[in-house]
Amino acid sequence: MTMSRVTAACGMTLAMCATLFLLATGCAKKAEQPKGRPPALVVTAPVTQRDVPLQIKAIGTMEASESVTIRTQISGELTRVAFREGQDVQKGALLFQLDPRTYLASIRKADATLARDRVIMNNARKDYERYSQLVKDGIVTQEQAEGYRTRAESAAADVAADQASLDSAREQLAYCTLRAPISGRLGVLAVDRGNVVKTNDTALVTINKLTPIRSTFTIPEKNLAEIKKQMAAGKVIVETEVPGIAGVKEKGVLSFIDNTVDPATGTIRLKAVFDNLQKQLWPGQFVNLSITLAMRNNAVVVPSQAVQTGQKGQFVFVVKADATAELRPVVASSVEQGTTVIETGLQPGEQVVIDGQMRVVPGGKVEIKKPDKPANAKAPVQSAPARQPASGK
Which own/partner pairs from 157-161 qualify as long-range (CB within 8 Å, at least 24 positions apart)? Predict the structure, then answer.
Protein backbone atom coordinates (compact mmCIF):
# COMPACT_ATOMS: atom_id res chain seq x y z
CA MET A 1 0.00 0.00 0.00
CA THR A 2 2.79 2.34 0.80
CA MET A 3 4.37 1.99 -2.68
CA SER A 4 1.07 2.55 -4.45
CA ARG A 5 0.43 5.74 -2.48
CA VAL A 6 3.90 6.98 -3.29
CA THR A 7 3.40 6.17 -6.95
CA ALA A 8 0.06 8.01 -7.05
CA ALA A 9 1.55 11.03 -5.33
CA CYS A 10 4.42 11.16 -7.84
CA GLY A 11 1.96 10.93 -10.74
CA MET A 12 -0.10 13.80 -9.40
CA THR A 13 3.05 15.89 -8.94
CA LEU A 14 4.18 15.23 -12.52
CA ALA A 15 0.73 16.16 -13.83
CA MET A 16 0.72 19.42 -11.93
CA CYS A 17 4.24 20.28 -13.16
CA ALA A 18 3.21 19.59 -16.75
CA THR A 19 0.14 21.81 -16.36
CA LEU A 20 2.20 24.66 -14.90
CA PHE A 21 4.75 24.30 -17.74
CA LEU A 22 2.04 24.52 -20.39
CA LEU A 23 0.48 27.58 -18.71
CA ALA A 24 3.86 29.32 -18.46
CA THR A 25 4.66 28.53 -22.08
CA GLY A 26 1.27 29.87 -23.22
CA CYS A 27 1.71 33.12 -21.26
CA ALA A 28 5.20 33.59 -22.68
CA LYS A 29 3.93 33.12 -26.23
CA LYS A 30 1.08 35.54 -25.58
CA ALA A 31 3.52 38.12 -24.18
CA GLU A 32 5.76 37.76 -27.25
CA GLN A 33 2.95 38.50 -29.72
CA PRO A 34 3.56 42.04 -31.23
CA LYS A 35 0.93 44.68 -30.85
CA GLY A 36 -0.65 46.31 -34.01
CA ARG A 37 0.48 49.87 -35.12
CA PRO A 38 -1.90 52.50 -33.65
CA PRO A 39 -3.75 54.76 -36.10
CA ALA A 40 -2.01 58.05 -36.93
CA LEU A 41 -3.70 61.17 -35.57
CA VAL A 42 -4.22 63.64 -38.45
CA VAL A 43 -6.16 66.75 -39.37
CA THR A 44 -7.98 66.69 -42.71
CA ALA A 45 -9.65 69.15 -45.06
CA PRO A 46 -11.95 68.61 -48.04
CA VAL A 47 -10.96 69.08 -51.66
CA THR A 48 -13.09 71.95 -53.00
CA GLN A 49 -13.74 73.92 -56.17
CA ARG A 50 -13.76 77.68 -56.57
CA ASP A 51 -12.79 80.48 -58.95
CA VAL A 52 -9.09 81.27 -58.69
CA PRO A 53 -7.30 84.26 -60.28
CA LEU A 54 -4.21 83.44 -62.32
CA GLN A 55 -1.64 85.91 -61.07
CA ILE A 56 2.01 86.87 -61.40
CA LYS A 57 3.50 87.88 -58.07
CA ALA A 58 6.66 89.90 -57.52
CA ILE A 59 8.48 92.03 -54.96
CA GLY A 60 8.99 95.64 -56.00
CA THR A 61 10.56 98.86 -54.80
CA MET A 62 8.67 102.13 -54.73
CA GLU A 63 10.18 105.16 -56.49
CA ALA A 64 9.15 108.78 -56.75
CA SER A 65 7.64 109.57 -60.15
CA GLU A 66 9.93 112.63 -60.23
CA SER A 67 12.92 113.40 -58.05
CA VAL A 68 15.04 116.59 -58.11
CA THR A 69 18.10 117.38 -56.02
CA ILE A 70 18.45 121.13 -55.42
CA ARG A 71 21.98 122.49 -55.85
CA THR A 72 23.31 126.03 -56.29
CA GLN A 73 24.58 127.22 -59.69
CA ILE A 74 26.60 130.00 -58.05
CA SER A 75 28.68 130.45 -54.91
CA GLY A 76 27.60 132.60 -52.00
CA GLU A 77 26.23 132.81 -48.48
CA LEU A 78 22.88 131.12 -47.80
CA THR A 79 20.83 133.91 -46.25
CA ARG A 80 17.34 132.36 -46.14
CA VAL A 81 15.65 128.95 -45.96
CA ALA A 82 11.96 129.37 -46.79
CA PHE A 83 10.58 125.90 -45.90
CA ARG A 84 10.39 123.19 -43.25
CA GLU A 85 11.81 119.71 -43.67
CA GLY A 86 9.18 117.25 -44.91
CA GLN A 87 6.91 120.00 -46.21
CA ASP A 88 4.84 119.66 -49.39
CA VAL A 89 5.63 122.41 -51.90
CA GLN A 90 4.19 123.50 -55.23
CA LYS A 91 6.19 124.15 -58.36
CA GLY A 92 7.71 127.67 -58.25
CA ALA A 93 7.67 128.00 -54.45
CA LEU A 94 10.63 129.82 -52.87
CA LEU A 95 13.16 127.48 -51.26
CA PHE A 96 16.48 129.32 -50.70
CA GLN A 97 17.91 132.82 -50.99
CA LEU A 98 21.64 133.58 -51.43
CA ASP A 99 23.36 136.90 -50.72
CA PRO A 100 22.84 138.92 -53.96
CA ARG A 101 25.10 141.93 -53.26
CA THR A 102 28.12 140.72 -55.26
CA TYR A 103 25.93 139.95 -58.28
CA LEU A 104 24.11 143.29 -58.05
CA ALA A 105 27.49 145.03 -58.24
CA SER A 106 28.41 142.97 -61.30
CA ILE A 107 25.18 144.08 -62.99
CA ARG A 108 25.91 147.76 -62.29
CA LYS A 109 29.44 147.41 -63.66
CA ALA A 110 28.27 145.63 -66.82
CA ASP A 111 25.56 148.24 -67.34
CA ALA A 112 28.05 151.12 -67.07
CA THR A 113 30.46 149.48 -69.51
CA LEU A 114 27.62 148.96 -71.97
CA ALA A 115 26.58 152.64 -71.73
CA ARG A 116 30.16 153.83 -72.39
CA ASP A 117 30.67 151.58 -75.41
CA ARG A 118 27.33 152.62 -76.86
CA VAL A 119 28.54 156.26 -76.89
CA ILE A 120 31.78 155.20 -78.59
CA MET A 121 29.83 153.19 -81.16
CA ASN A 122 27.45 156.07 -81.97
CA ASN A 123 30.36 158.50 -82.45
CA ALA A 124 32.20 156.04 -84.67
CA ARG A 125 29.12 155.60 -86.84
CA LYS A 126 28.68 159.37 -87.21
CA ASP A 127 32.34 159.77 -88.22
CA TYR A 128 31.98 157.06 -90.84
CA GLU A 129 28.83 158.68 -92.27
CA ARG A 130 30.59 162.07 -92.48
CA TYR A 131 33.67 160.68 -94.19
CA SER A 132 31.50 158.71 -96.61
CA GLN A 133 29.98 162.01 -97.74
CA LEU A 134 33.43 163.62 -98.01
CA VAL A 135 34.53 160.77 -100.27
CA LYS A 136 31.66 161.56 -102.61
CA ASP A 137 32.69 165.24 -102.63
CA GLY A 138 36.30 164.28 -103.40
CA ILE A 139 37.69 165.85 -100.25
CA VAL A 140 39.07 162.66 -98.60
CA THR A 141 40.18 159.34 -99.98
CA GLN A 142 38.29 156.07 -99.77
CA GLU A 143 41.01 154.58 -97.57
CA GLN A 144 40.39 157.21 -94.91
CA ALA A 145 36.65 156.51 -94.92
CA GLU A 146 37.28 152.74 -94.58
CA GLY A 147 39.26 153.37 -91.39
CA TYR A 148 36.25 155.03 -89.78
CA ARG A 149 33.99 152.18 -90.93
CA THR A 150 36.28 149.69 -89.19
CA ARG A 151 36.17 151.72 -85.99
CA ALA A 152 32.35 151.82 -86.08
CA GLU A 153 32.08 148.05 -86.57
CA SER A 154 34.55 147.38 -83.74
CA ALA A 155 32.57 149.64 -81.42
CA ALA A 156 29.36 147.77 -82.34
CA ALA A 157 31.06 144.47 -81.48
CA ASP A 158 32.11 145.87 -78.10
CA VAL A 159 28.51 146.90 -77.40
CA ALA A 160 27.28 143.37 -78.23
CA ALA A 161 29.86 141.86 -75.86
CA ASP A 162 28.86 144.29 -73.12
CA GLN A 163 25.20 143.32 -73.58
CA ALA A 164 26.10 139.65 -73.20
CA SER A 165 28.03 140.39 -70.03
CA LEU A 166 25.06 142.29 -68.64
CA ASP A 167 22.69 139.43 -69.46
CA SER A 168 25.07 136.96 -67.76
CA ALA A 169 25.24 139.14 -64.64
CA ARG A 170 21.46 139.30 -64.47
CA GLU A 171 21.29 135.52 -64.86
CA GLN A 172 23.75 135.09 -62.02
CA LEU A 173 21.59 137.34 -59.85
CA ALA A 174 18.55 135.21 -60.68
CA TYR A 175 20.42 132.13 -59.40
CA CYS A 176 20.50 133.75 -55.96
CA THR A 177 16.83 132.76 -55.61
CA LEU A 178 16.17 129.01 -55.71
CA ARG A 179 12.59 127.86 -56.38
CA ALA A 180 10.98 124.42 -56.54
CA PRO A 181 11.20 123.04 -60.10
CA ILE A 182 8.45 120.45 -59.39
CA SER A 183 5.66 119.88 -56.89
CA GLY A 184 6.39 117.30 -54.23
CA ARG A 185 7.59 116.45 -50.72
CA LEU A 186 10.80 118.02 -49.40
CA GLY A 187 13.40 115.88 -47.69
CA VAL A 188 16.19 116.59 -45.21
CA LEU A 189 17.78 120.06 -45.22
CA ALA A 190 21.51 119.48 -45.76
CA VAL A 191 22.83 123.05 -45.23
CA ASP A 192 21.57 125.58 -42.68
CA ARG A 193 21.22 129.33 -43.16
CA GLY A 194 24.48 131.26 -42.80
CA ASN A 195 26.72 128.71 -44.51
CA VAL A 196 28.65 129.47 -47.69
CA VAL A 197 27.82 127.13 -50.55
CA LYS A 198 29.83 126.52 -53.69
CA THR A 199 28.68 126.13 -57.27
CA ASN A 200 27.07 122.69 -57.82
CA ASP A 201 28.99 121.31 -54.84
CA THR A 202 26.44 120.54 -52.12
CA ALA A 203 22.96 119.02 -52.39
CA LEU A 204 20.78 121.36 -50.37
CA VAL A 205 17.53 119.33 -50.38
CA THR A 206 15.72 116.73 -52.48
CA ILE A 207 12.13 116.97 -53.74
CA ASN A 208 10.25 113.72 -54.42
CA LYS A 209 6.93 113.67 -56.23
CA LEU A 210 4.70 111.15 -54.42
CA THR A 211 1.46 111.52 -56.38
CA PRO A 212 1.66 109.60 -58.59
CA ILE A 213 4.35 107.16 -57.50
CA ARG A 214 6.06 104.31 -59.35
CA SER A 215 7.12 100.78 -58.49
CA THR A 216 9.97 98.91 -60.17
CA PHE A 217 9.97 95.10 -60.17
CA THR A 218 11.05 92.08 -62.22
CA ILE A 219 9.18 89.04 -63.52
CA PRO A 220 10.43 85.77 -65.08
CA GLU A 221 11.09 85.82 -68.80
CA LYS A 222 8.47 83.10 -69.36
CA ASN A 223 5.68 85.53 -68.37
CA LEU A 224 6.76 88.25 -70.83
CA ALA A 225 4.62 87.04 -73.74
CA GLU A 226 1.45 86.99 -71.63
CA ILE A 227 2.17 90.45 -70.21
CA LYS A 228 2.68 91.91 -73.69
CA LYS A 229 -0.55 90.29 -74.81
CA GLN A 230 -2.44 91.83 -71.90
CA MET A 231 -0.94 95.29 -72.55
CA ALA A 232 -1.94 95.09 -76.21
CA ALA A 233 -5.53 94.37 -75.16
CA GLY A 234 -5.74 97.28 -72.71
CA LYS A 235 -4.56 98.48 -69.32
CA VAL A 236 -2.90 95.88 -67.09
CA ILE A 237 -3.92 96.34 -63.46
CA VAL A 238 -1.21 95.92 -60.82
CA GLU A 239 -2.12 95.54 -57.15
CA THR A 240 0.35 96.38 -54.41
CA GLU A 241 0.39 95.60 -50.71
CA VAL A 242 2.86 96.64 -48.04
CA PRO A 243 3.95 93.55 -46.08
CA GLY A 244 3.27 93.72 -42.38
CA ILE A 245 0.94 96.73 -42.63
CA ALA A 246 -2.76 95.90 -42.81
CA GLY A 247 -4.96 98.01 -45.05
CA VAL A 248 -2.21 99.53 -47.18
CA LYS A 249 -3.32 98.44 -50.65
CA GLU A 250 -3.27 100.32 -53.94
CA LYS A 251 -4.27 99.57 -57.52
CA GLY A 252 -2.16 100.90 -60.37
CA VAL A 253 -1.41 100.40 -64.04
CA LEU A 254 1.55 98.74 -65.71
CA SER A 255 3.40 101.55 -67.50
CA PHE A 256 6.74 100.24 -68.71
CA ILE A 257 8.47 97.07 -69.95
CA ASP A 258 12.23 97.16 -70.33
CA ASN A 259 13.71 96.49 -73.76
CA THR A 260 16.15 93.83 -72.55
CA VAL A 261 15.90 90.58 -70.61
CA ASP A 262 18.65 90.20 -68.03
CA PRO A 263 20.57 87.11 -69.25
CA ALA A 264 22.12 86.54 -65.80
CA THR A 265 18.79 86.18 -63.96
CA GLY A 266 16.33 85.43 -66.77
CA THR A 267 14.07 88.28 -65.65
CA ILE A 268 12.83 91.52 -67.18
CA ARG A 269 12.23 94.85 -65.46
CA LEU A 270 8.76 96.44 -65.35
CA LYS A 271 7.28 99.59 -63.84
CA ALA A 272 3.80 100.38 -62.57
CA VAL A 273 2.23 103.73 -61.68
CA PHE A 274 -0.06 104.28 -58.66
CA ASP A 275 -2.13 107.39 -57.90
CA ASN A 276 -1.16 107.22 -54.19
CA LEU A 277 -3.69 109.90 -53.28
CA GLN A 278 -3.52 108.98 -49.58
CA LYS A 279 0.31 108.94 -49.72
CA GLN A 280 0.46 105.49 -48.13
CA LEU A 281 3.26 104.35 -50.46
CA TRP A 282 6.73 105.81 -49.95
CA PRO A 283 9.91 105.91 -52.07
CA GLY A 284 12.34 103.13 -51.17
CA GLN A 285 9.60 100.95 -49.66
CA PHE A 286 9.45 97.22 -50.49
CA VAL A 287 6.00 96.03 -51.59
CA ASN A 288 4.29 92.85 -52.75
CA LEU A 289 2.88 93.17 -56.27
CA SER A 290 0.44 90.99 -58.18
CA ILE A 291 -0.81 91.09 -61.77
CA THR A 292 -4.06 89.22 -62.51
CA LEU A 293 -3.87 87.70 -65.97
CA ALA A 294 -7.16 85.75 -66.01
CA MET A 295 -9.74 84.03 -63.79
CA ARG A 296 -9.82 80.23 -63.65
CA ASN A 297 -13.35 79.01 -62.95
CA ASN A 298 -14.15 75.95 -60.81
CA ALA A 299 -10.55 75.09 -60.09
CA VAL A 300 -9.81 72.13 -57.77
CA VAL A 301 -8.06 73.50 -54.68
CA VAL A 302 -6.66 72.23 -51.38
CA PRO A 303 -4.93 73.95 -48.46
CA SER A 304 -1.28 74.45 -49.37
CA GLN A 305 -0.05 72.51 -46.31
CA ALA A 306 -1.62 69.34 -47.77
CA VAL A 307 0.83 69.26 -50.69
CA GLN A 308 4.10 67.46 -49.90
CA THR A 309 7.20 66.99 -52.06
CA GLY A 310 8.98 63.66 -52.36
CA GLN A 311 11.62 62.08 -54.56
CA LYS A 312 9.05 61.42 -57.29
CA GLY A 313 7.41 64.83 -57.10
CA GLN A 314 4.43 66.32 -55.29
CA PHE A 315 1.85 64.21 -53.47
CA VAL A 316 -0.93 64.31 -50.88
CA PHE A 317 -2.35 61.80 -48.42
CA VAL A 318 -6.01 61.04 -49.15
CA VAL A 319 -8.13 59.57 -46.34
CA LYS A 320 -10.34 56.82 -47.80
CA ALA A 321 -13.73 55.65 -46.56
CA ASP A 322 -12.17 52.79 -44.54
CA ALA A 323 -10.01 55.29 -42.57
CA THR A 324 -6.81 54.35 -44.36
CA ALA A 325 -4.37 56.75 -46.00
CA GLU A 326 -3.52 56.66 -49.70
CA LEU A 327 -0.43 58.38 -51.09
CA ARG A 328 -1.72 60.19 -54.18
CA PRO A 329 0.65 61.87 -56.69
CA VAL A 330 -0.66 65.28 -57.81
CA VAL A 331 0.25 68.07 -60.21
CA ALA A 332 -0.01 71.46 -58.48
CA SER A 333 0.13 74.85 -60.17
CA SER A 334 -0.52 78.25 -58.65
CA VAL A 335 -0.65 79.16 -54.96
CA GLU A 336 -3.01 81.90 -53.78
CA GLN A 337 -3.43 82.97 -50.14
CA GLY A 338 -2.65 79.57 -48.62
CA THR A 339 -4.57 77.60 -51.28
CA THR A 340 -2.97 75.47 -54.00
CA VAL A 341 -4.61 74.70 -57.34
CA ILE A 342 -4.43 70.99 -58.24
CA GLU A 343 -4.28 70.24 -61.96
CA THR A 344 -4.57 66.44 -61.73
CA GLY A 345 -4.79 63.79 -59.00
CA LEU A 346 -7.76 64.83 -56.85
CA GLN A 347 -11.54 65.05 -57.06
CA PRO A 348 -13.82 67.47 -55.20
CA GLY A 349 -15.14 66.03 -51.94
CA GLU A 350 -12.12 63.90 -51.09
CA GLN A 351 -10.44 64.37 -47.73
CA VAL A 352 -6.72 65.20 -47.63
CA VAL A 353 -4.36 65.28 -44.65
CA ILE A 354 -3.21 68.83 -43.79
CA ASP A 355 -1.47 68.07 -40.49
CA GLY A 356 0.29 64.97 -39.16
CA GLN A 357 1.76 63.69 -42.45
CA MET A 358 4.96 62.58 -40.69
CA ARG A 359 3.01 59.92 -38.78
CA VAL A 360 1.08 58.60 -41.79
CA VAL A 361 2.07 55.35 -43.52
CA PRO A 362 0.62 54.66 -47.01
CA GLY A 363 -2.18 52.14 -46.51
CA GLY A 364 -2.09 52.57 -42.74
CA LYS A 365 -4.97 53.49 -40.48
CA VAL A 366 -5.59 57.11 -39.52
CA GLU A 367 -7.68 58.80 -36.88
CA ILE A 368 -9.07 62.22 -37.67
CA LYS A 369 -8.79 64.80 -34.92
CA LYS A 370 -9.98 68.36 -34.70
CA PRO A 371 -7.49 71.21 -35.25
CA ASP A 372 -5.82 72.56 -32.13
CA LYS A 373 -7.46 75.58 -30.54
CA PRO A 374 -5.61 78.89 -30.73
CA ALA A 375 -3.02 79.33 -28.01
CA ASN A 376 -4.62 82.56 -26.83
CA ALA A 377 -7.98 80.92 -26.22
CA LYS A 378 -8.81 81.23 -22.53
CA ALA A 379 -11.10 79.09 -20.41
CA PRO A 380 -14.16 80.88 -19.07
CA VAL A 381 -13.55 82.41 -15.68
CA GLN A 382 -15.85 81.04 -13.00
CA SER A 383 -17.05 83.50 -10.44
CA ALA A 384 -16.14 82.75 -6.84
CA PRO A 385 -19.01 81.76 -4.57
CA ALA A 386 -20.41 84.56 -2.50
CA ARG A 387 -19.05 84.72 1.03
CA GLN A 388 -21.58 83.84 3.71
CA PRO A 389 -22.04 86.43 6.43
CA ALA A 390 -20.63 85.48 9.80
CA SER A 391 -23.04 84.14 12.35
CA GLY A 392 -24.08 86.48 15.13
CA LYS A 393 -23.71 83.77 17.70
Answer: 158/117, 158/120, 158/121, 159/114, 159/117, 159/118, 159/121
The answer, yes or no, to whether residue 386 has pLDDT greater than 80, is no
231: nearest Cα among 65, 56, 78? 56
Establish whether domains 209-296 and 298-368 are of one fold.
no
CATH architecture assigned to 100-175? Orthogonal Bundle (1.10)
How open is the CA angle 301-302-305, to the nearest 5 degrees?
145
Whether 229 contacts 245, CB under 8 Å: no
Residue 137 CB burial class (10 angstroms; 0-12, 13-18, ≥19): exposed
pLDDT of 374 > 70? The answer is no
Domain 298-368 class, CATH top level: mainly beta
Q: How buried is 42 (Cβ within 10 angstroms: 0-12 exposed, 13-18 middle, 19+ buried)?
A: buried
- Residue 261, helix vs strand vs coil: strand
Q: From the CA atom positions of the chain, what is the Rg in Å?
A: 47
In tens, the pLDDT along 283-323 reads: 999 999 999 888 888 999 999 999 999 888 999 999 999 99
Average per-residue pLDDT for the chain: 85
Contact 92, 252 (CB under 8 A): no
CATH number 2.40.50.100 is the correct assignment for the domain at 209-296? no
Q: What is the arrangement of strands in the sheet containing 76-81, beginning at the earlier edge strand? A: 177-179, 94-98, 76-81, 196-197
Alpha-carbon distance of 215 to 281, in angstroms, equals: 10
Strand (E) or helix (H) holding 16: helix 2-32
Q: Where are the domains of the chain?
A: 100-175, 209-296, 298-368
Distance of CA 46 to the CA centre of its chain: 35
Rounded CA separation 282/272 (Å): 14
